[in-house]
């Protein structure tokens, strides 16, 4: 089994204060095969980990049902109940859910999270997460679809309080191979986010890549795209992007992907213009089967939950995954990020800059064939130039899960 630490879909634009629970997303078997064969690049799917256990007891024709249940106990301090008000609380989470595997091409998962706080300054709440993933191929085409929905009510770094958010994210992908060297990758995305009391937004975007294989292990690509954003508490905007990309598998143990370019964003209400560099780097190293190291860095621009603002986001993450004694799995990650808030009125600084660093450690082990257990620790610190938004938090806990 492969673990994939996912909290909420990427369209939710603000970081959570709480350590994200371990979550599982299943890629359909046919999509896994297309990815492993290199038939195309499914951007909306390539970060998801396969998890379909063997010996399945619930089958109804082409549909296989995988029920799952998890429990998490967490104690944390420095949790943001309101700007300038950091408190300690015990948090308990119960997550029953079900994954449907429909044939070999589709999976649907529904996972609610009921959350209980010991401190009354927080409200108990129910998060809901739904994901649909599918893919197929036709002649030289590879097609992919992902649809997610998330409803969350947790403390966020941007707002320094519990924030009620709902997000819909849709991704359509298509890739076409002209010959053994040249291929085309196309993507169309929609992200709709609503946040009670804060800025809500709708975004439509597209990105197309023309890829050329120089050597069997080296691909270069040129990409162009753009998007349009509407906001409830800010200016509508339109943007265009131009990027280059290099994908290199240097050896069987080392792989590298780099992309870089720029974005030109126009705020329609003020006619202000924001020109930003964009980049991303991902390096993976697996010296032995039980050990993997990775480093990633990226810079992006996105709309903010705050009125009349966008954010310039820069992040660096280093992670280690290690198998211990054949049964234990240790995952360590350290990250640093900076968020610069930019005014949509003049494309200048809005006066708030956040610098955040964190460290995460998770030790997990299996039991009773389908059960998993784990203990974890997270330290996070946010230094904000705006009063009331800085915090330092230590969180420790345990989690239990069982899946068919």
UniProtKB/TrEMBL annotation:
Instruction: Kindly give the Pfam families that the UniProt entry links to this protein.
Output: BBP2_2
UniProt-listed SUPFAM superfamilies: Porins (SSF56935)
InterPro entries per the UniProt record, alphabetical: BBP2_2 (IPR018759)
Top-rank taxon? Bacteria
Q: What is this protein called?
A: Outer membrane beta-barrel protein
The lineage, from the top, is:
Bacteria, Pseudomonadati, Verrucomicrobiota, Pedosphaerae, Pedosphaerales
């Amino acid at each position: 089994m492969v673990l994939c630490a996912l909290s909420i879909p990427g369209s939710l634009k603000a970081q959570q204060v709480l350590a994200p629970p371990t979550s599982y997303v299943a890629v359909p078997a046919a999509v896994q095969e297309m990815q492993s064969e290199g038939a195309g690049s499914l951007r909306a799917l390539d970060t998801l980990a396969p998890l379909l256990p063997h010996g399945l007891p619930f089958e109804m024709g082409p549909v296989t049902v995988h029920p799952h249940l998890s429990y998490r106990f967490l104690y944390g301090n420095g949790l943001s109940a309101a700007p300038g008000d950091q408190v300690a609380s015990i948090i308990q989470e119960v997550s029953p859910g079900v994954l449907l595997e429909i044939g070999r091409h589709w999976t649907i998962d529904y996972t609610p999270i009921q959350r209980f706080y010991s401190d009354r300054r927080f409200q108990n709440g129910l998060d809901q997460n739904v994901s649909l993933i599918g893919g197929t191929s036709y002649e030289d085409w590879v097609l992919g679809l992902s649809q997610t929905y998330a409803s969350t009510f947790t403390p966020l770094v941007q707002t320094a309080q519990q924030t009620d958010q709902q997000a819909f994210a849709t991704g359509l992908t298509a890739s076409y191979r002209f010959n053994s060297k040249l291929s085309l990758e196309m993507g169309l995305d929609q992200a709709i986010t609503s946040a009670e009391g804060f800025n809500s937004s709708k975004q439509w975007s597209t990105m197309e890549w023309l890829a050329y294989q120089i050597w069997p292990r080296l691909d270069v690509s040129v990409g162009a795209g753009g998007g349009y954003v509407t906001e409830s508490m800010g200016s509508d905007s339109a943007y265009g992007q131009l990027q280059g990309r290099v994908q290199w598998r240097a050896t069987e143990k080392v792989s590298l992907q780099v992309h870089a370019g720029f974005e030109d964003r126009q705020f329609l209400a003020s006619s202000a213009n924001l020109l930003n560099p964009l980049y991303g780097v991902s390096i993976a190293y697996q010296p032995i089967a039980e050990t993997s190291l990775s480093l990633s860095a990226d810079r992006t621009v996105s709309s903010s939950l705050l009125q009349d603002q966008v954010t310039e986001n820069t992040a660096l993450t280093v992670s280690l995954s290690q198998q211990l004694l054949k049964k234990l799995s240790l995952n360590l990650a350290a990250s640093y990020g900076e968020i610069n808030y930019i005014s949509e009125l003049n494309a200048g600084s809005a006066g708030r800059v956040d610098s955040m660093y964190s460290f995460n450690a998770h030790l997990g082990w299996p039991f009773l064939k389908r059960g998993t257990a784990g203990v974890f620790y997270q330290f996070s610190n946010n230094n904000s130039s705006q009063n009331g938004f800085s915090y330092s938090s230590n969180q420790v806990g345990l989690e239990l899960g069982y899946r068919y």
